[in-house]
Amino acid sequence: MFIETLERKRVEKERQHKVCRSRGGESCAFDGAMIVLQPIADAVHLVHGPISCAANSFEGRGTLSERGSFHKRGFTTDLRELDLIVGSEQRLLKVIEEIVRETNPQAVFVYSTCVTGLLGEDLERICSDAQRKIGVDIIPVNAPGFIGPKNLGNRIAGEVLLDYVIGKEEPPFRTDRDINIIGEYNIAGDQYLIEPLLEEAGFRILSRITGNATFREIKWAHRAKLNVIVCSRALVNIGIEMEKKYGIPYVEVSFFGKTEIAQALRKIAGIIDRDGALAERVERLILREEEKLKRDLRKFENLLGKRAVLYTGGVKSWSMISALKDIGIDVVGVGTKKSTYEDEEKIKELVSEDCLLFEDTTPANILKIMKEKSAEILVAGGRNLYLGVKEGIPFVDVNQERHRPYAGYRGLLNLAEDISKAIEFYSKDRVNRGPLSIKIRKGFIDPLKNSPFVGAAMALQGIDGTVPLLHTAQGCNFLGKVLLIKHFREPIVMNTTKLFTEEVVMGGEEKLRSNVLNFKKKGAQLVAVITGALSQMKGEEIEAVIAPLREETFKALHIPVPDYEGSIEYGYAKAVDLVLSLIPERGQRKRKGQINIIVGGHLTPADFSELREIFELFGLKPLILPDLSHLDGSRGFSGITKGGITLSEIEEMASSEFTVVIGRSLKSAGEMLKEKFGIEYRVFDSLMGVSSNDELFEFLSLLAGREISEKIKRQRRILIDAMRDSQFYLARKKAAVATEPDLAFGLSELLNEAGIDLELVVLPIGGENLDRIQAMEVIIGSLSDLEGDFELILSNSHAEDRAKKLGAALLEIGFPVYKSLGYPNKVTIGYRGSLNLINEMANLIMKREVH
């Protein structure tokens, strides 16, 4: 009875406050706070912690703004191990001062993370001291990931605005029709389609909280006549508190679909329009827009009667149903994992009795429901994109990662058009530069660095039968996994123990043990426990937990990669070294022609396949570790890695004749195999350009005792011919590279051979033999250090805005690449890959000069 009473009270509380019922599967409190506050684009959003949270969420949200550009930039304190030992307060103060000096923001929001939350810093006092010293609003956001899910972070962000921003300034003028829009983040420009409707209806938007907002306008939000809440699940607390404190009523609305738009306009007018002057104006607007919409929707009559499964959250969990019905689509299944109880009641009112409401939103169950319900389209968030791609299911992304607006009347047409296109697609079978200058800068703004645990998880994708298990708060896994999915456009196997406050305080060893056993039962041959800064600081004995679980047919491995050490290359190399340590030390007979290839993550999946083909052309048997070739689109969906090198093949590496290492960061792997098994090795820093590949092919010819084939010689001739063809466009052009060190080595050689002047190389971390990079200057820093007169920049997708600012063409390369298609399938090494890069650079320069 006592338990039943507690459960009843919990449900009542969740109903009252519109709280999501799920603690898992939707990121963490830190992410939720950033989603709410980052659209304030004239304020800096500083992530206080090691690199992970900032790097993994960099440009991860589809919000747009005309009021500033800080929402597209990344700011981090990038804490190191020493900061965690002696305290990070001074580093935080110094970073705030430097960022304010360099960027002149209206305010600085400082976000605590799991690591700084565990340190127990007095963030409020630190921000208060900084504000007094600098004279700019410095606002603390205490929402470390381990305290709860994204929904909680949304609420905390709302409380931050109530405590530090709203009510702090008076508006220049006021009217009787002033409203605030709350909970609309201008994803993909939704707000650009909503605001003109509201203004034409006669309403004046006083403050936007927070899409397309300025920091200052939120200060005077307390003078509005009405709060219009678009996503009640996220920010209803603002409406409730402002009604108590300022007497401002609030109304909950949606702008997805014509039915909801009409209801929203009428609701707002019903409260604002005290003399009835606006009612007729609103009705004329609705009539005009609905008649136009009716005409425009005729071209999408092919959608009438189509069946859809929907999985999203918040207001969209029911308002999107209304929008789909307006198009003529029947919703036959709705995922409710991220819905409140009130959302669920609204859903039931809108769907037919045979519509299935389901909480199990795993890809396997969604696929099962799609088949059972004969659904023709999946409408969900970006994390389910790969499910649609792999299974040939038409898919439309309606969550925050999308890049097309679906709100308002025009947005409904966009939604219809995208669904129609998706269904139609699947209906078809369809030189010497002198002394090198090396400088070390602070990497606080627009970080180039990525988390080492992302590197470790990436490497493990290339080992068959493996489960990477992050022992940390759930946001790390969520954000890191989304980042890897965006880059590879593939399902990524990556799981987490989801540490919450109770485990952080009391210890998460038992939770770790149960997770490992669970994956063991599911057939995993290797569970690799990846620990970051949170676990390292807690001092948990990971090995003591997993050692008793090992058996002859099951391996459990601990990969410690705290965020304050190294970057993505470091984590990748650490994972490779520890996987090699699994090989038993026993006598092995050498197998003639068998060669180990240790390959860096700076290569594309297509490059791994190219390597295998090259070695096999010489009659050699390559054992590639890791083997990421299956991330080229051929792997399929699975909860445990499929494809790549097997554990038994890894053990066979002890009997190989030689080891070839691709990438300087992996040199330690070659050294380990030599020390344990007496296998000689050679490191190739680069496989780009003519000279490096000449060395590789001559070496393989010597190793195999075979002549270089005519096929390879022909590829070399084609590359040299392309370099000659492109000289008119590339010679003497100025370029900059901003990537991880291994890739920078290769690109510098290729650019030099193409006659391009490599003025600057920016690296996230230092490394060995940097003086071998063929550039004028090397900076250890971040994307903000890309300064100069360049025609071409070679870097990841985050550098797009930087390239535009500098007027340079951008060749997307490195990690992450997600703003162009086909990168996993692009060969970038060997003669063929070098040819691809030469042609791509020449084409970019040609287009730049023509246009």
UniProtKB/TrEMBL annotation:
Gene Ontology biological process terms, A to Z: nitrogen fixation; protein-containing complex assembly
Stored InterPro entries: Nase/OxRdtase_comp1, Nase_Mo-Fe_CF, NifE, NifE-like
Top-level division of the source organism's lineage: Bacteria
Gene Ontology molecular function terms on file: oxidoreductase activity
Domain Nitrogenase/oxidoreductase component: 28-423, 451-845
Signal peptide annotation: none
Homology family: Belongs to the NifD/NifK/NifE/NifN family.
Protein name, as recorded: NifEN2
Organism: Thermodesulfovibrio yellowstonii
